[in-house]
Amino acid sequence: MSTYTNAKELSNLALGKTTHYCSQYNPELLQAVPRSLNRDSLDLTAEKLPFIGEDVWYGYELSWLNDKGKPVVAVAEFIFPCSSPNIVESKSFKLYLNSFNQTKFASWQQVELALINDLSATAGATAQVKLFPVNDCPALALSEDTALCIDDLDIDIEHYQLAPESLKNTEQNAGHNIEHSIEPNVNEYLVCHLLKSNCLITNQPDWASVYITYSGQKICHESLLRYLISFRQHNEFHEQCVERIFCDIQQYCQVDSLTVFARYTRRGGLDINPFRSTSDKKAPKLRTLRQ
Length: 291
Description:
Layout: H1 8-11, E1 32-34, H2 36-39, E2 52-65, E3 71-81, E4 86-88, H3 90-98, H4 108-123, E5 128-132, E6 148-149, H5 170-173, E7 186-198, E8 205-216, H6 221-229, H7 238-253, E9 257-264, E10 270-277
Parallel strand pairs: 6-7
Antiparallel strand pairs: 1-4, 2-3, 2-10, 3-5, 7-8, 8-9, 9-10
């Protein structure tokens, strides 16, 4: 996308480049990407965001040495407020976590504090960090979910480039026919497991299940599915895709309330799960089979 062309903030990233894996604790490995790179194209400013939310990451490959040199392993939950000026670039995050591998820490609390301090400094806002034993992380238990899945709708797809104009609510889909009776407002909880986008820099595929909760004029499910599939060849970071989905649904479907939550599959021991909502609430503890 033109927003990112020759952006100096991206030119120095380790992403897409050959890198050395460091196994001694090194917070300088962390790199930040300004959220404004994406938000400028969506006409969003830090002072006036149309959503509240957070980015929830889970780390599955965190290990360090205790003070006797014995390895310790843990699962980590990281939460960043969507109001932070930066996102943590994911490859630098992985390199940073690897740097714990051969480093001695006196306690789990010492590791947690180091993570909080380093990640908060990179994001530019306070990060929340919780460490769990690998056999006891309640947030990662598989969940039964009540969302209506729209994946099985029988539609033809010919184009796989981003197409927000395909979004419609049921009234718009009916062509504003005078004889068409406007449906009453609805509350729906939908899921699509077909979301695929690509890394902005490496072009590697990113796979996700996207959960959409809204109230208002009913969204045409076929148009929503076409729109979500149109991300298939689109290059953008996880957080940016979710904010784009949120803003496009608001603009084209004119809903009253909206929540968009994407559960991405993990890569390199990390999964990223952006949550954006018009309501002041936290991301649900929801894990899919693919995660």
